[in-house]
Amino acid sequence: MNLSTLPDLRAADAPDAPAVADDSTDLTNTQFLEAVRRASAVMAAHGVSARDVVAIMLPNQASYIVALFAAWRLGATVTPISPTSMPAEAAYQITDAAAKVLIADAAFEIDAPVVALSTAKLASKDAEVVEPVEHRDDVLALLIYTSGTTGRPKGVMLDHANLNAMCRMAIDAFKMTSEDHSLLILPLFHANGIVVGTLSPLLAGGRATVAGRFNPKTFFDRLKRSRATYFSAVPAMYTMLADLPADVRPDTTALRFAICGAAPASVELLTKIETRYGIPLIEGYGLSEGSCASTANPLEGKRKVGTVGPPLPGQKIRIVDADNEDVPPGESGEVLVQGPNVMRGYLNRPEETAKTLVDGWLHTGDIGRFDEDGYLVLVDRAKDMIIRGGENIYPKEIETVVYQLPEIAEAAVVGRAHPVYGEEPLLFVSLNSGAAASTDGIVEHLSGSLSKFKLPVEITILNDLPKNPVGKIDKPTLRKSLAAIH
């Protein structure tokens, strides 16, 4: 499927069927095609053509999806930028990607050689309409920039073949049909929001509704109004939903399932959401470098809370040791992924690409193991591992035990340098509303399950733990706060 022609095909097949909506817009297939054609005409009038890069820096709204398909209609590549980026951050990405045009709603002063266009400008009817460009599947579709936790952000190169393969896997795994309706609450500058929340339902003949900024107090009302059949969210969002007052009993009968990804979730949280709201919750795992997802618990069949499921059909996963040798069954090692969804590489970074893509295998940097059923269990990020006096400590192991306490909303363990032991673990937590907990009580709980060398040397209770734009707990920020304090 050539994504540049999808709006045309949908309009020809079902002109009056719903396609894309947000809180103020509801576009049929015909209206969606017209909006895409107008936007692509404006982009073309400003010099955008095949293989150029278009930067989109918008909040979640229907016009974002219009701009995405408009760029693809011209054979251009899209690089999504978080709308909360600071000018220097946006300028870095625009310059690194060599973007020709920036789509943004508000006036944004930026030190980068780029033409700025507003969504109002994209809706202009003055420019001459252009027909979709035919291109090969190896043409770049997206440049998704990593969070930069190990240095400056890198542009993950995903071509149309990657996206098509990934969407087909999602459609097959979740049995998507023209009856499916995604309620999009994840940011569209992230692969999950684009692939699972937008492209997959549209390719399946269904529809997507952009819910705007996530608010746990209004989310279930928005879900009921939309009659969406599924949504995808991160653990931080599910934590907020789980913490709603006990009298909140929403109607979730239209939902077939919900997806949890982007960061590890505790068994307690997943069980609480399923039990309280009756939502089949599918936990999966993937990276931007793999177009979005590589494993998922099955929609039909055995779902194992605490695992991220088996590999998606069409992908292979290996668990290897430091010498790149497969480890014995059940043992932990680095997770490697292979499949048609794996990125082409990092933009203009051949050395880093060579380290990450080795003999066709994507080195994820994650530590995991397969259980007896072939379901992947994530142990931790390799870079987050703490080595204390020669002993390996995986923060996720500590966090898993902390989450057993009902008072705990969020937990994060990071390492701090130590002159003798090398590193030592520190724990940060936030509490559910109305809950109370003491550091002594947390230590007592941890002592019952963990070896002494794994126990955090300090515990800090915060109102909220910092998050990055994707909604993951921001451990780099926690580490920086330690450096500032100590």
Describe this protein's structure:
This protein has 486 residues and is of the alpha/beta class. The chain contains 14 helices and 25 strands. The protein folds into 3 domains: 133 residues, Rossmann fold; 191 residues, 3-Layer(aba) Sandwich (Rossmann fold); 101 residues, 2-Layer Sandwich (GMP Synthetase, Chain A, domain 3). The strands form 6 sheets. It has an 8-stranded mixed sheet with strand order 2-1-10-9-11-12-13-14, with helices on both faces. Strands 15, 16, 18, 19 and 20 form a 5-stranded antiparallel sheet that branches. Strand 3, helix 3 and strand 4 form a beta-alpha-beta unit. The mean pLDDT is 92.
How many strand units? 25
Main sheet: strands, sense, barrel: 8 strands, mixed
Oligomer: single chain
Strand order within the widest beta sheet: 2-1-10-9-11-12-13-14
Any idea what the CATH architecture of the largest domain is?
Answer: 3-Layer(aba) Sandwich
Question: CATH-wise, what's the superfamily of the largest domain?
Answer: ANL, N-terminal domain
Note poorly predicted spans.
none
**Distance between the first and last residues' Cα:** 54 Å
Specify the structural class: alpha/beta
What is the residue-averaged pLDDT? 92
Shape: globular
CATH topology of the largest domain: Rossmann fold
Beta content: 15-25%
Helix percent band: 25-40%
Number of contiguous helices: 14
